[in-house]
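Hi U.,

Before I forget, here's the chain from the pilot set. I'm dumping it here mostly so it's searchable later in email.
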Amino acid sequence: MKSFQVVIVTLSVLSGLPLLAASTSGWRGDATGRYLSANPPLSWSKTNNVIWNTRLPHFSNATPLLLKDKLFVCSEPSTLICLDASNGKILWQKTNAYADVLTPTELEQAKQVYTNLNTSPRTHDVNGYSSPTPTTDGQRIYVVFGSGVSACYELDGTLVWARFLERPTHDWGHSASPLLVGKTLLVHILKMTALDAASGKTLWTAGTPAGWGTSVSVRVGDMDVVITPKGDILRLSDGLKLAGAVSKLDYCAPLVENDVVYFVENGGKALRLSSPESGKVVPEMLWQTRPAADRYYASPILFKNRLYAVNRSGQFSTIDALSGKILTEQKLALGGTYYPSVTLAGHYLFVSSDTGSTVVFDLDDAAGKEVSRNQLEPFRSSPVFDGARLYIRTLGGVYCIGK
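Structure:
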């Protein structure tokens, strides 16, 4: 099957964060998966250290989105659910089927273009339609579903706007999360579509190939640019292609750290981006690397100039972030497929598989000492940390684990 997660390789000092064109919260929090101030429990089960567990009717692979005292999760095929983060109570839930969010006129217009609108787009059973993680500017929640619907909600569940953009056509479905950059919401289904976040109106479209991973944004010189998984670099203001196919990812996504963009998928490269003159972007190759061969569904983590990555079969690699050199490799024995992204809470590393098993490493130990193995019910989403708590969207519901 195809991936609906992102593989990230970064290069920075420990305290460094990506120099993004805007600071928002969405997939993996700030897209790094690092929660440096968190201090969650290191051991748990379905009964141990569980603060609350809310059961939901359908699965989702989307990572939970935590905003203040609210937790936003998705559910198949098109539902956005808001939970009280303190106790797991469902505050509201909204479905986003075509008939739910489109006006009769919009629905009729869509049927003129897509004669098969009454049937669901193709997807894979593991991927489903709700893999994209919501994003927020702190005031509103923005969602995208594999039906081709994008919508914006107030925190109280009031629908602000909804759009049917286009139907995914790949047999494995859609999974790229929406990217919010300032006042622009970027949705990449077949083509890249830039929407005005306030109104949902289309600002521009760009015919750039899509992947299952999410695009990233960075400021280069005096421009905000967007980098797609297929390696196209677009100007945020109008979608103009500044560089094409600087690399290519099938199953994962690029990440930027300061002025460097990284592409890793059964091999990879690091490119420095510069802007010698206004309106220009020039990529410079820094290094290439090749961790253990296989697809990489999970996203790695950077800590103290080391990268920690795991492929779909559980081959766990430590990579020198300054050179790309593979330092260590070992086989983890969690079973299943390693979909959840590698996450960092304080100096502890969390690696999970879809069996619901998680191994925790202490990265303050020079050898990366294993400190615990934990079993929950199956999940494919990535954990989210906040203080002494962690939230996991399982296939059956949501767990809040804490001390």
